[in-house]
Amino acid sequence: MPSFLDTRDADFAARFQALLEGKRESSQEVGDVVNTIIADVRARGDDALVELTNKFDKANVTPSTLRFTQEEIEAAAARVTPEVRSALETAHARIKAHHEKQKPADHIYTDEIGVTLGTRWTPIEAVGIYVPGGLASYPSSVLMNAVPAKVAGVERIAMVVPTPRGEINAAILAAAKIAGVTEIYRVGGAQAVAALAYGTKTIAPVDKIMGPGNAYVAAAKRQVFGKVGIDMIAGPSEVLVIADSSANPAWVAADLLAQAEHGAGAQSILVTTDPRLADAVAKEVDRQLAVLPREQLTREGWEEFGAIITVASLDEAVELANRIASEHVELAVDDPKALMPRIRNAGAIFLGHHTPEAIGDYVGGSNHVLPTARSARFASGLGVLDFVKRTSILGCDPSSLAILAPAAVTLAETEALDAHGRSVSIRLNR
Ligand SMILES: NC(=O)c1ccc[n+]([C@@H]2O[C@H](COP(=O)([O-])OP(=O)(O)OC[C@H]3O[C@@H](n4cnc5c(N)ncnc54)[C@H](O)[C@@H]3O)[C@@H](O)[C@H]2O)c1
Ligand SMILES: N[C@H](CO)Cc1c[nH]c[nH+]1
Ligand SMILES: [Zn+2]
């Protein structure tokens, strides 16, 4: 059963806290399993990678078939229907256009005392992109990961994707071809993350690992952070819909079920000012669930962590949304643009009744790799900035050095770092 809460109930605070603390993703148990897998890949390289892939994915790979050949990529890309190719191309063009606007500019200037200061952006050399593929397959996630990498100018993109029972959705490889990704491996889960971080004979290590995945992938990214960079924790999907009486219950129910469909650990929450809408959405969810082909998976996603919360005002709705910090926040209200600036914590915001979250998953142009598990309080969705790094540039001439030297020497003395002070003063009295 999903939770039904009302802010006016006496036990609301305790039940809301329990909802916030619900363990959807990282348990000690998952952490321990992942720890063992990473250690195994570090110790035994390809042998461990192959063994674990065949164990978890039943993929029947060998070291020599871990990487997709160029012929396999071409053949799969040729197998997709013209409709699928065209949809992928539409998505690719829109994602590319939006991400081009995120490219940061270098800048350099000389200040009033003659010091040159600047900021330079450089693409990361090698990135790993994780494309999930356990319960569903995600050609759209290929584009969401690869396009910003390409726009940023990353040289090497190594893509990993699990192939359950040795099968791959041809659209995954078609999307990779459209995005210009050629280095693709049949591995997933924690073992794929470990291989990207530490390297094996077949997979050279990367500098940073991006992309969404289940609890095992998220835990592995946490554990390899430091050895490599990671984008964020983009784990099991979430949506929070804020709705007033202008919302359509059938549409809201459909949006809640769309995220629940991602399965284990997914979370769909409705926060509404209208008790009648709350009832109508609950009934609609049951009605729509019964006709969904993936009913069981979606039901688990909805019933385990789903919730309908009735509030006294939109002010209360905003406050709860900011505390929950959901991956996606839909504003199914009369005046979404007025409410939008008040939502501080969200991976992405969807404006109004005609913007289902699924448009953002596929073709809107914004990125669908977004922070989950309340990390939208401090993290952002994937974008070009994740694939570049910033270097500062500094230059003094004799006169600006003379102006800054006394303060620098004083601070060096305060820190008792004499060699620091000397490296400044030695340049002054010639
Ligand atoms: N936040 C985002 O931006 C975003 C975007 C797309 C998808 N997602 C999420 O990605 C997830 C995809 O999950 P998925 O499972 O379909 O694919 P996945 O590729 O993330 O995970 C599959 C892998 O999990 C590993 N695994 C499964 N059970 C295991 C076990 N018992 N022990 C060790 N390893 C195990 C296996 O190695 C398998 O290859 C969903 O939760 C979905 O909500 C998130
Ligand atoms: N909703 C997911 C992000 O949480 C992304 C996705 C891809 N395909 C379908 N959905
Ligand atoms: Zn989705």
From TrEMBL:
Positions of substrate binding: 237, 259, 262, 328, 361, 415, 420
Pfam families per the UniProt record, alphabetical: Histidinol_dh
UniProt binding sites for Zn(2+): 259, 262, 361, 420
Catalytic activity from the UniProt record: L-histidinol + 2 NAD(+) + H2O = L-histidine + 2 NADH + 3 H(+)
GO molecular function: histidinol dehydrogenase activity; NAD binding; zinc ion binding
UniProt GO cellular component terms: cytosol
Cofactor: Zn(2+)
Statement: the UniProt record of this protein carries the keyword NAD: yes
Active site: residue positions: 327 (proton acceptor), 328 (proton acceptor)
EC numbers: 1.1.1.23
Keyword flag ATP-binding: no
Keywords associated with the record: Amino-acid biosynthesis, Histidine biosynthesis, Metal-binding, NAD, Oxidoreductase, Zinc
Cofactor: binding comment: Binds 1 zinc ion per subunit.
CDD domains assigned: Histidinol_dh
GO biological process, one term: L-histidine biosynthetic process
Chain residues that bind NAD(+): 130, 191, 214
Function of the protein: Catalyzes the sequential NAD-dependent oxidations of L-histidinol to L-histidinaldehyde and then to L-histidine.
Family of this protein: Belongs to the histidinol dehydrogenase family.
Protein name in UniProt: Histidinol dehydrogenase
Species annotation: Paradevosia tibetensis
